[in-house]
Amino acid sequence: MRRIAGNRAVRRVASTLGTLFGVAVFVFVMLRAIPGNQITAGLGTEAAALTPAQKQALEQYYGLDQPLVTQFFAWLGNMVTGNFGYSARSQQSVLDLTLHALPVTFELAVFSIVLALLVGVPLGMLSASRANAPRDAIGQVVSLAGLSIPAFLLATTLLSIFAASFGFNPNGQGFATLVEDPLLNLQQMFLPALVLGFGIAAPILRTTRTAVLEVRSHDFVRTARAKGVPERRLQVRHVLGNALVPIVTMTGLQFGYLLGGAVVVEQIFSVPGIGRQVLLGIQQKEYAVVQSTVLVIALAFVVVNLLTDALYRIIDPRVRAS
Fold this sequence. Notes:
Layout: H1 2-33, H2 38-43, H3 52-62, H4 68-80, E1 86-87, E2 92-93, H5 94-129, H6 134-148, H7 151-166, H8 182-216, H9 219-226, H10 231-242, H11 244-261, H12 263-268, H13 274-283, H14 287-315, H15 317-321
Antiparallel strand pairs: 1-2
Membrane topology: Multi-pass membrane protein
Protein name: ABC transporter permease
Main location: membrane
């Protein structure tokens, strides 16, 4: 048993390292495929006036004169030693930028997931309680709307309505962390979390509905009902308790997505998160910022998946024994 657990851990570590290496290669290659570089992004049209000697000096400064393979492994080696690179735009190291941006995105992801669970799980159970009934149709409409409405459209609409009709635009005051000003921070997180939570609630709702319908068809549910177990206890403890694994899995996947997929919402609401950091890095062709930040996002996603896997092994003994 111990040997099996050890083999599983080795496979997980190898899979994680392989995933991160693949992401590193993909991001490195794709950035070089985009026209332009740090020189043209920093100087704009003035880059055309550079003399060959000036251009060569700048390429040496940015390391662009080296072969791509050398550039890649030099960057990867620096990442392993904690040197994430330097941002000329912000005059800060990429590590400092990431340490400031990652907690912001993590906070936004937590709020979004909480809102999504508060909407998705109850509506999913409500839909499953009477399949193909009007209440089920309501749940299906909500999930379809969450999947269909683009985040940028919902974000701009809500921002315009709240700002124009209610004068509510706390994001225009400059971002405040939860430590600096808790009330202002929660106000600034409200609309972005609402937009992201609405989109995430849709897959959680559908997963909950499907899982609950499957569990309700099992014999032990009918037996518990025949024994006179109260309906609320039956639904929460017996049905929902046995449907948690797919719900937890979907929640973990969505949480991992939020750590890097909230770029548009962060930009619209001026939230200085990790996604916005990547977007600004791409606009300025700052290779070190984009490469290092994306690799951190990939690492965070892998860690979230590992934690999710460990969580549903705790929830369901059958998974633990497999």
